[in-house]
Amino acid sequence: MRKEFREYIEAEIPLIKKYPSALRPLMLRKIRLQKPAADAVYMFRYCLMFTHGSNILKKLLARRYMQLLVRRYGIFFDFRKGSSFGKGLKFPHPASIIIGSGVCAGDNCVIYQNVTIGGARAGDAANDNYPEIGNGCTLFAGCKVLGDIEVADGTTVGANAVLLRSTEKDSTYAGVPAERIK
C-alpha cells in the first residue's frame, strides 16, 4: 500500500523529485507552506489510502486528514463507496471542491476551485449515480458535473458550466446546461 501511495505522490508532486525526503514530516511542512496545491493532493491521497484500510487507527487517521482538508482548503469528499482517482491528479487552486462518494476519475485530471462533482438529485448515493471522469480531463472553476454521466478522455468543462450529460472524447463544454462548443 505504501509503495502505491508513493507512486501516486511522485506522479503528482514535482517537489518529491527535487527533495527525495519529502515524505518525512519536516519536508511536509515546507511543502504545505510553499505549495498548497501539492499539500491538498498529498492529504487527499492520504485520506484515500487510510479510508480503504481495515485497521481502526487508519480510519481515525483518514477522518483527521478529511477534517484538515475541510479546514484548510474547504475540500470535501466522501470515499465510502469506492471512489478512485488515477495518477497525476492536480488541484491548482485548492478551495471549495466537493466530490461525491462514488466519483471515479482517470489519470492526469485537473480540478480547479469551487468544482462540484456528484449526484444530480437526492437519493443518488443509494443508486450509485455518480459521474465517471476519464483521463486528461480539466474541470475549470465553478463547474458542476452532476449525475450518472461519463466525461470522456480529454474533455474540458468550462468555468461555471453545469454538465448534466455524457461527453465526447477531446471536446469542450460550456454553458448552463453545458453544450459542446468545440
Provide an overview of this structure.
This protein has helices spanning 2-12, 14-18, 25-34, 36-51, 56-73, 124-127; strands at 76-77, 84-85, 98-99, 104-105, 110-111, 116-118, 132-133, 138-139, 144-146, 150-151, 156-157, 162-163, 172-174, 179-180. It is α/β, with parallel strands linked by helices. α1 packs antiparallel against α4, α3 crosses α4 and α4 (36-51) runs antiparallel to α5.
List keywords for this structure.
17% strand; five-stranded parallel sheet; 182 residues; globular; five-stranded mixed sheet
Question: Which structural class best describes the helix and strand composition?
Answer: alpha/beta
Q: Summarize the biggest pleated sheet.
A: 5 strands, parallel
Q: What string gives the helices and strands in order?
A: HHHHHEEEEEEHEEEEEEEE
Q: What is the tally of helical segments?
A: 6
- Strand % is 15-25%
CA distance, first residue to last residue? 40 Å
Determine Rg (CA atoms, Å): 16 Å
Number of DSSP-assigned strands: 14
Determine the fraction of residues in helical runs and give it as a percent range. 25-40%
Instruction: Give the spatial strand order of the biggest sheet.
Output: 1-3-6-9-12
* Parts with pLDDT < 50 across at least 5 consecutive residues: none
Integer average pLDDT? 80
C-alpha geometry: globular
Please sum up the structure shown.
This protein is of the alpha/beta class and 182 residues long.
Q: Secondary-structure map with pairings?
A:
Elements: H1 2-12, H2 14-18, H3 25-34, H4 36-51, H5 56-73, E1 76-77, E2 84-85, E3 98-99, E4 104-105, E5 110-111, E6 116-118, H6 124-127, E7 132-133, E8 138-139, E9 144-146, E10 150-151, E11 156-157, E12 162-163, E13 172-174, E14 179-180
Parallel strand pairs: 1-3, 2-4, 3-6, 4-7, 5-8, 6-9, 7-10, 8-11, 9-12, 11-13
Antiparallel strand pairs: 13-14
Helix pairs in contact: 1-4, 3-4, 4-5
